[in-house]
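Hey L., structure's done. Input below.
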Amino acid sequence: MVALRGAVSSTAALDFRRALRRHARFKLEQRAQLADIYAELVAPRKRGSAARADAAMLGDAWLGPAIRAGLLQPIPDALASRWWAGLSPRWRRLLRRDANGRLSDHGDVWAAPHRWGCTLVAARKDKLLRWGGRPIRDWGDLLQPRLRGRLAMVDSPRELVAVALATLGLPLNATAADVLMAGVGVDGLRARVDELRQQVRVFSSREHTRALAAGDVWAVVGWSGDLLPIAERSANVTLSAPVSGVPLWADLWTVPAGASGGSQGRGPSPLLPAWLEFGLQPARAERRRGMLEFLAPLDEDTAALHWSVLHPEQRDSL
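Output:
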């Protein structure tokens, strides 16, 4: 198994090893970034490559491109598995894709959920407020003059465009048709993206949090899994969930096209369903870090809890 560093707890890995006892071997490798895992799928290393693992973790944004590029294979017998039977409809819609990676109600199952969270904004109140800036309550506050050259964002074009759309009063996942119907147009959206880029000093999924800690930037747009630990450690860092809404993300287990743990080195290990079911047990689907990062599965009840935290009336509790 190849996972994002810190995404699988040491307790979970130990429990699974104990469950296997002496019947099989279990090895969990970790990579610093999901982009590193994707890069190994594209250009496999000779040894220890994610491309030959029984399962590799990818973000939901990577799933479609990986399928189109032929880097993955559908999860064997997923529709008949117990873990699939326990998933909510919203997870099933996300995980079933056609051969081009597009959502399909009749497509194969290309991934299994591991955890999900949202995109938040972390700000240094000892910097931003001290020098005349205003609190970040919505995405438009990222365009305030005091943040020019003092903002960091994850290195994700999808997040950049989503934030730009939100500052224009459009949905985070607005389509080209939505942009035209709103009277913004492609040129208007492009201008807003450029305006937002001028605010950003650092585009990085590695260095953005370090820049905030060092005071090089005063605010960061990032994923909850990265930002929550910083806010927990520092009284000078505040978290906000913009009132107009936040993007959600999910980390998924996928099966590389070159998985070699099965019989005669072909396909994934027959123990893969056991690992997926182990991770999706209800007892492990517990709230994490103040309800802003969850282990799968995402059902209607946990979705309601998640939204209650992000509701404007309760945003200050973050």
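Confidence is low (pLDDT under 50) at residues 287-293, 298-318. The domain at 2-116+250-307 is CATH 3.40.190.10 (D-Maltodextrin-Binding Protein; domain 2).

-- N.
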